[in-house]
Amino acid sequence: MDLKTFLSFEWSIMAPEFIIIGVATLLSIIDLFMGKDKSRRPLGWIGVAGVVLAIISLVGLLDKEATSILHDTFRLDGFGKAFKLIMLVGAGMVLLLAMNYEPKEGMKEYRGEFYYLLLTALLGAMVMTSSGDLITLFVGLELLSISSYILAGLRKKNKLSNESAMKYVINGGISTAFILFGMSYVYGLTGSTNLTEIFTLLSNLQNEKLIYVLAIAFFMIFVGLSFKIATAPFHMWAPDVYQGAPTPVTAFLSIVSKAAGFAIILRVMIIVFGQVSSGNEETPILIFHLQDYIAFLAGATMIIGNTIALRQRNIKRLLAYSSIAQAGYILVAFASLSYFMMDAIWFYLVAYLFMNLGVFAIIQVITDKSGSEDISQFAGLYKRSPLVAVAMGIFILSLAGIPGTAGFIGKLNIFLGAFVTSPAHYVLASIMIATTVVSYFYYFGILTQMFFRPAIDDSKVKLPSGILIVVVLCVIGTIGLGIFPGIALDFLSQFDRFSDFIG
Amino acid sequence: MIENLLNSPPSWLNFGIFFGLATALLMVVLGFVTYGILAERKVMGFMQGRIGPNQTGGSWGLLQTIADVLKLLLKEDTIPKLADRPLFILAPIIAFAPAFMVLATIPFTDKLQFANIGVGLLYYIAVSGITTVGIVTGGWASNNKYALMGGMRAAAQMISYEIPLVMSVIGVILFTGSLNLVDIVEAQENVWYIFLQPVGFLVFFIASIAELNRTPFDLPEAESELVAGFHVEYSGFRWAFFMLAEYVYLFAMAALTTVLFLGGWHPVMFLDFIPGAVWFALKFSFVVFILMWIRYTFPRMRADQLMEFGWKVLLPVALANIFISALIKELFF
Amino acid sequence: MNESYLLSLLVFSPLLGIILLAFVPKVQEQTIKIVGFLATVPALLLSLFLYFSYRAGADLAQYTEKYNWFGFIKDGPFSVEYDLGINGFSLVMILLTAILSTLAAIASIHIKKEWKGYFMLFLLLELGMLGVFAAENLILFFIFFELTLIPMFFLIGKWGYFEKEKAAFSFLIYNGIGSAILLIVIMILFAKTGTTKISAITAILASPQGTVPTFGAITTELRYGLLIALMVAFGIKLPIFPLHSWMLRVHVQAPPAIVMLHSGILLKIGAFGLIRFGLGFFPEEFKSMAVLIAILGVINLLYGAFLAFIQDDFKMVLAYSSISHMGIVLIGLGSLNEAGIQGAIFQVISHGLISALMFFLIGVIYERVGTSMIGRLGGLAKVMPIAAGFLLTAAMASLGLPGMSGFVAEFMAFLGLFKEMPIIAAVGAIGIIMTAVYLLRAVLNVTYGKPNNTYENAFDMRPIEFVPVFVLLGLIVLIGVYPNVLSQPLQLVLDTIMIGLGG
Amino acid sequence: MSSVPLSAYLILALILFCIGLYGALTKRNTVIVLISIELMLNAVNINLVAFSKFGLMPNITGQIFALFAITVAAAEAAVGLAILIALYRNRKTVNVDEMNSMKN
Amino acid sequence: MDLLNQYLNNYLIVIVFLCLGILLPVVALTAGRFLRPHAPSEAKYTTYESGIEPFHDSRVQFNVRYYIFALMFVIFDVETVFLYPWAVAYEKLGIVALIEMLIFVLMLLLGLVYAWKKKVLKWI
C-alpha cells in the first residue's frame, strides 16, 4: 500500500472511532499525570463530551452510502451506523453513571481508569460492529472483552469484584477460544478472512463434507458468541459478574456489551453463513437447517433466565437473570430469521438500552446509599421518593413488556417476526410469552417492595445531577418509544432493512 | 559435496552425517569452553596483577580446566531429599540443550554454517529463551530458598533484558530486510552495522551481558547474597551443565554479536587475503575479550538498579532506535 | 368520514384529571377527592351525549377516528393505526363504564389513605376501560386491555384488605396469562393478514381462503386454534369455571369501589371480547363449538351457585354469584340465536349494574361494622334499615325478579337456549332456582338474622351514598321495565352478528 | 516426510483444543485453568497456520490471523494473571471452587 | 524440489542439534554414575540452609513484582511479533507502514510510561 492509496481512503467514515480513541488516550494521559488527590470527575465530563462528539459525527455520517476502507476491513453501512448509535448513547449514559458511582470502599483510586477503559471497551464494540474482516472483528471483540474484564475487577480491594472479574476472564477466554476455532475453520474452507469474500466463496460451496465442517464452525462461533450476550449455554458467568462488578460496569455489560454481541452475531452469522447451501433439496440454505438449534438455545435461555430469577434476593443478580432472559427474547428474533429480524433486534436493543440503563441508574443510587444490594432496600421507595419510585416502576414495567412502554413494542416486533415466517415459530413465541408472564413475578416483586412495603428508613433518595439526566433520558426514551414507536421505526426505515449489509 | 547432501531428500543417512558434523562442532565448543574458562582466569589474573592457574599441565596451567572437569565428573552426586526429583534432574538438561541448539544457525563463514534457516535470528532468540525455563525449574526443584530466589531473579532479569535485546536488533533487520543471518552478514559487506547502528549495538551488547548473567548483571548467582543462586543445591556434573550452558551461551552470543554487528567473516578494508574464518575468529575473540574485560572491571549492580535500567533506559532507547533507523533508511537509502 | 375528536376526548378525558391531580399537593385531601370525582364527569357527559344522539338516529360511523400510528414497514403493510370507533354494543359498554366510574368515584369515600395515588390510578383504570371498548384496532385494544391491568394491580395491592398482595399477584398472573394468549392471537392475525384493523380482519377472515391475499395461509386448524385461544384468554377474564380462582381473591380483597368497577366492567371485557372477536372473527367455528360453550355456561352457573350457597363471607357469595351469572352469558352465547345473544349482552350490562350495586352496599356495611362474614352479621335491618332494604332489593334484582334487568336478561338467554338445546337449558334452569336460594339465604341472614354483633359505630347511609344507589337501582328498573333502552342501540350489532352466523 | 496431511494438523489441533477445554472446565487451580485456555487458543493457531500452508486455498492471511490471535491471547493471559493476583491478595486462594462468595 | 529438500535438511539439522543437546548431558551423567562414588549419609541430603533442616516447603510466597514483570514481558515480547515482520518487509511497505508502526509503538510507549508512572517498574 503506498501513500496515495492510503490517503485515498475516506478516513472520515472512521471519525467516531477516531474521536473515541483520541479521547481515551487523552484521558489516560491526563489521569496518569494528574495529582493523586485531585478529583477525577472532570475526566468523566471529558469522556461524555467525547462520546457526544462521536454521536454528532456519526449522525453527520448517516446519509453516507455504505463505504469500505482499508481493503474492506472497515465498513460503514447502515447496520454499523444503527448499532453504533446504540452503543454510543449507552456508553455516554454509563459514563454519567460512573461519574456518580460512589460505593463505600474500593473505588477512589481507580476512578480515572474507569473512564478510559470504558471508552476502549466502547471502541472495541464499535470496531466490531463495522468490521468487514474476521481479524478486525476478532480484535474488536477482544478489545471489548479485555477492557470489560478489567472493568469488572476495578474495585481491586473488593472480594466480589475480584471474583467476578476472574470468572469473567475464565469464561471469556473459553468462549474466545471457541469463536476462534470456528473462525479458523471458516478461514480454512475459504482461504480468506474477508467477510464479503467469504460470503461469495461459501455460497458456491457444494461439497457435503465441507458443509458439515461449516456447520461445526457455525456452532463453535455461535456458542462462543452466546457468551457475549449471556445466553445459554454460556450464561453462567452473568449472575456472578453482574453482582460483583461495579454497578456502572454491570450496566455497561448488560447494554453496550450485549448490543455488541448481537451486532457481531448478525455480522458473522448472516454474512458468513447466510448463503451457504446445505446440499439439501427442501431447505437449500444451511442456516435454516440450523435454525431449530438456535431456537432451542433461545428457548432454554428464556426459561433458565426467568425461572432462576424468581428466587434471587440480590437486585443485581436478579437483573442479571433478567438480562439473560431479555437476551433470550432477542435471540427469538434471530432464531426466527424473518424479514423483520434486524429491525426487531435493533429496536429491542434500543428499548432495552433505555429501560435497563434506567433501572441500573436507580439501583446504583440505592445500593450506594445503603451499601446493601438486597431487594429489601427498595422497600417503601415510593414513600421516600415518589418520583424515583415511579421512574423505576416505568422501567420495570417496560422490562416486563407492559404496553405503553418501549419494551412492549419491542416484543411486538419480535412476535411479528416469529409469526410472519412460514412455518411460523409458534412454540418459540409461546415459550417467550409464557416466560414473560413468569417474569411478572419478579418484576412485580420489585414493584411490590417499592410501593406496598413500609420503608426501613425515611431518608429521601436524592439523585445526583448526572444520574438525574440519565434517568430522565431513560424515562423519556422508554415512554416515548412506547407511545410513539414511529420515531425509531422511521429512523430505522432509512436503512431500508439494512439492505447494504452485504456489500 | 555438502551442497549435494543438502539438496538430497532427508533421510536417516543425512541424519547420521549431520550428527557426526554436529558432534564435531560440539567438540569444538567444548574445547572453547575449556580454554575459555582458562582464558577467563588468566585474563582475570592479568588484570588483577596476579598470575592465575599455572601449575597443572605445564607452565600456563593448560590442563587446569580439564582437571576441574574430571574432578566434577568424579564428584559424588547428591539430590536433596526435599527436592522435586524429576524436575531437579531435568533442569540442567533444559538449560543446556537450547544453548547448544542456537549454535546451529550461526554462520561462521559463508560456507561454514550448519542450518541456514530463513528466520535464523528469530530462531536464536526464541530458542535461547527456553534456558530461562531451565533455570527457574532448577531453582524451584531445589526446594531451597536461596535457589528459588536466585531462580526467580534470573527469570526476572532474563525476561526484562530480552525485550531490549530483541528490540535492538530490529534496526539490523530493517537495514537487511531479512531475518536470515547469512543475509545479514552479506549486507555488511561495505559497512558494518556497528557503524550504522551504534545505539542498537550498545543496547544489544548491554542486554546480551545481562542475558549471559555476567557481571555487572550477575544478580541471579550473586555469591555474597544468594550463595550461588539457582544452582546452590547442584553439585558434580549436574552443576557443570549449568556452567557449561553459560559458557556455550558466551560462545554463541559473541558469535551472534560478530554476525549482527561486526560484519561476520567480512575482512577489514583491504585485508581480504586473510580467510573469512580467521576474521570471524578474530572478531569473535575480541568480543569475548571485551566481555571478560567488562566482567572484571565493573562492580555488580543493585537489583533495583538492574531492573530499572533495563526497563527505563534500554527499552525506550531501543524503541527510539527503531524509529531513527527507519527514518534514516527512509531518508538516505 | 367526518373528522371528529369526540371519541379521543371521551377516552382520554380521565388523563386531564391525572395531570391535574399531579399538581395537587398530597395534603389537600378534599381537593383531591373533588378533582378525582369531577374528572370522571366529562366521560359520562360525552357518553350520554353519544347515547342520546344515537337513539335520536345519528350515525355512529361519523365518530370514527383514524390516524397512522406506526408501521413496521414504512408506508406498507404491517402498520398499526390509532383507530377509534363505536357501535351500539360498545356504546352501551362505554356508557356503563362512564356511569360506574362516576359512581365508584363517589364510593371511593371509603378509601382511607393516599388519595392522590388512588385517584390517579383510578382514572388510569377508567381510561383503560373506555379505551378497550372504543378501540377499532387489535393492538390498540390490547394496549388498553393491559392498561387496566397495572392500575388494578396497584389498587388491589395497596388499598385492599389483609391478603391484598397475594390477591394482586394472582390477579396479575392470571390476567397476564390471559393477555399473553390474547397477544399471541393478535400477533398471529397481524402476521397473517398484515393489518390489525378489526373490521379488515373480520372481512379477510370471512372471505373464503385464497380469495384475499394474506401473508400466510390461515388454515382451518389455525382458525380453531385461534378461537380456542381467544376463549381461554377471555375466559380467564370472564371468568369461566376452571380459570376463576383469581377472581374470588380479588373480589374479597380489593376495596369496594374497585370491586364495583372490577365486577361491573372488567369482567365484562371478557364477554365483550368473546362476542366481538370470538364470535365476530370466527362465526363458523364458534357455531361448531356452541354446545361446548353452552355446557360450560351451565357448569359455570351451577358451580357458582352451589359454592355460593356454602360461603361464610358475603363477598364470597357475591363473587360466586358473579361466576354463576357469567354462566348465563355463556348460555346465551351458546344458543347462537338472536334472543340468546341479546340475552347475553343484556346480562353483561345488567349484571354490571347489579353487582356494582351489591358491592357498593357491602362496602357501606363493611365500613360501619368492620366485617362481611355472614355469621357475624345479622339483624342489620334494625340498625341500618335503609341499607338493609337496598341490599334486599339488589338481591331481588340479582336473582331475576321480574321488572328488573336481571329478569329480562336471564329470560332471553334461556329462551334462546331452550330453542336450540332444551336439555342443557333444562339443567341450567336449576341454577336459576339455586340463585334465589343462596342469595336469599345470605341476604336474609344479614338483614333479619340474629344479631351477633353489637354494631357500636353503625349508622345508616350518608346522603352522598344515596346517589349511587338511586342511580343504579333506577337503571336496573328502567331496563327491566323498558328494555328498549338497550335493545334499540344493540339491534344493529345483533343483525351484524346474525349475518356473520349465516342468518 | 513432507507429506503430513492437513487432517493430521487439524486432528492435533482438535485434540489440543479438547484437552484445553477439559482442563479449563475441570481444574481447580486458576493458573492451570488459564494455561488450559492458552492451550485452546494455541490449538487454533495450529489450525490457522496449517490452513495457511496446506489448506484448500493456501495464503498468508492465516498466519497473520495467528499473529493476532497470539497477541490477543497474551493480553488476555496478562489480564487474567493480574486479576488473579488481585484476587489472591484478597482471598488467599487461587482455587476456582473457592470463589463462591456470591452463591445463593 | 531442491529448495524443499534444503529447507527440510536445515530443520533436520536443528533436530540433530536438539538430540545432541539432550544426549550430551544424558551420556555424561550416565557415565558419571559409573565413575563417581556413592556414599550416602543423612546430612548430605539436607537442604543447604544455615545447617538447620527446614521443616516445611521453602516455596515461600515471593514478591508480586516477579509476576508483574512477567506480565510486562509477555505484553512487550508479543508486541515485537509485529515489529519483526514489519522490519523485514519494510522496504516493500514504505512510509505508510512507518506511520502505522509509529502509532503502534507510541501506544507501546504510552503503556510503558503508564507502568512507569504507576511505579510498576520499581523494584522492591
TrEMBL record, chain A:
Record EC number: 7.1.1.-
Subcellular location: Cell membrane; Membrane
InterPro entries named among the record's database cross-references: NADH-Q_OxRdtase_suN/2 (IPR010096), ND/Mrp_TM (IPR001750)
Gene Ontology molecular function terms on file: oxidoreductase activity
A Pfam family: Proton_antipo_M
UniProt membrane topology term: Multi-pass membrane protein
Main location: membrane
Keyword Cell inner membrane: no
Transmembrane regions: 12-30, 42-62, 82-101, 113-129, 135-154, 166-190, 210-230, 251-273, 293-311, 318-339, 345-366, 387-406, 426-446, 467-489
Similarity comment: Belongs to the complex I subunit 2 family.
Subunit composition and interactions: NDH-1 is composed of 14 different subunits. Subunits NuoA, H, J, K, L, M, N constitute the membrane sector of the complex.
Annotated function: NDH-1 shuttles electrons from NADH, via FMN and iron-sulfur (Fe-S) centers, to quinones in the respiratory chain. The immediate electron acceptor for the enzyme in this species is believed to be a menaquinone. Couples the redox reaction to proton translocation (for every two electrons transferred, four hydrogen ions are translocated across the cytoplasmic membrane), and thus conserves the redox energy in a proton gradient.
Name the UniProt record assigns to this protein: NADH-quinone oxidoreductase subunit N
Gene source species: Litchfieldia luteola
Gene that specifies this protein: nuoN
UniProtKB/TrEMBL annotation, chain B:
Name of the gene encoding the protein in the UniProt record: nuoH
Organismal lineage: Bacteria, Bacillati, Bacillota, Bacilli, Bacillales
Record family assignment: Belongs to the complex I subunit 1 family.
Pfam families to which the protein is assigned, alphabetical: NADHdh
Name listed for the protein in its UniProt record: NADH-quinone oxidoreductase subunit H
Entry membrane topology: Multi-pass membrane protein
Function (record text): NDH-1 shuttles electrons from NADH, via FMN and iron-sulfur (Fe-S) centers, to quinones in the respiratory chain. The immediate electron acceptor for the enzyme in this species is believed to be ubiquinone. Couples the redox reaction to proton translocation (for every two electrons transferred, four hydrogen ions are translocated across the cytoplasmic membrane), and thus conserves the redox energy in a proton gradient. This subunit may bind ubiquinone.
EC main group: translocase
Main location, first listed in the record: membrane
Keyword presence, Cell membrane: yes
Keywords: Cell membrane, Membrane, NAD, Oxidoreductase, Quinone, Translocase, Transmembrane, Transmembrane helix, Ubiquinone
Catalyzed reactions: a quinone + NADH + 5 H(+)(in) = a quinol + NAD(+) + 4 H(+)(out)
GO molecular function annotations of the record: oxidoreductase activity
Subunit structure: NDH-1 is composed of 14 different subunits. Subunits NuoA, H, J, K, L, M, N constitute the membrane sector of the complex.
Subcellular location: Cell membrane; Membrane
Domain of life the protein comes from: Bacteria
InterPro entries hit by this protein: NADH_UbQ_OxRdtase_su1/FPO (IPR001694), NADH_UbQ_OxRdtase_su1_CS (IPR018086)
Transmembrane parts of this sequence: 12-38, 87-109, 121-142, 163-185, 191-210, 247-265, 277-297, 309-328
EC number: 7.1.1.-
UniProt-listed HAMAP family: NDH1_NuoH
Automatic annotation (TrEMBL), chain C:
InterPro entries per UniProt: NADH_Q_OxRdtase_chainM/4 (IPR010227), NADH_UbQ_OxRdtase (IPR003918), ND/Mrp_TM (IPR001750)
Keywords from the UniProt entry: Membrane, Transmembrane, Transmembrane helix
Domain spans labelled NADH:quinone oxidoreductase/Mrp antiporter transmembrane: 135-431
Compartment(s) where it occurs, according to its Swiss-Prot or TrEMBL record: Cell membrane; Membrane
Transmembrane segments: 6-24, 36-54, 84-106, 118-135, 141-159, 171-191, 224-246, 258-282, 288-310, 317-336, 348-367, 379-401, 421-444, 464-482
Record's keyword annotation contains Membrane: yes
Presence of keyword Thylakoid: no
Membrane topology value: Multi-pass membrane protein
Pfam family, one: Proton_antipo_M
Coiled-coil zones: none
Chief subcellular location: membrane
Family named by the database record: Belongs to the complex I subunit 4 family.
Protein name as annotated: NADH-quinone oxidoreductase subunit M
TrEMBL record, chain E:
Keyword terms: Cell membrane, Membrane, NAD, Quinone, Translocase, Transmembrane, Transmembrane helix, Transport
Domain of life (superkingdom): Bacteria
Regions crossing the membrane: 12-35, 66-87, 93-116
Bilayer topology annotation: Multi-pass membrane protein
UniProt-annotated location(s): Cell membrane; Membrane
Main location: membrane
Enzyme Commission code: 7.1.1.-
Catalytic activity: a quinone + NADH + 5 H(+)(in) = a quinol + NAD(+) + 4 H(+)(out)
InterPro entries: NAD(P)H_OxRDtase_bac/plastid, NADH_UbQ/plastoQ_OxRdtase_su3, NDAH_ubi_oxred_su3_sf
Protein purpose: NDH-1 shuttles electrons from NADH, via FMN and iron-sulfur (Fe-S) centers, to quinones in the respiratory chain. The immediate electron acceptor for the enzyme in this species is believed to be a menaquinone. Couples the redox reaction to proton translocation (for every two electrons transferred, four hydrogen ions are translocated across the cytoplasmic membrane), and thus conserves the redox energy in a proton gradient.
PANTHER family: NADH-UBIQUINONE OXIDOREDUCTASE CHAIN 3
Family: Belongs to the complex I subunit 3 family.
Assembly and binders: NDH-1 is composed of 14 different subunits. Subunits NuoA, H, J, K, L, M, N constitute the membrane sector of the complex.
Protein name, UniProt field: NADH-quinone oxidoreductase subunit A
Gene that encodes the chain: nuoA
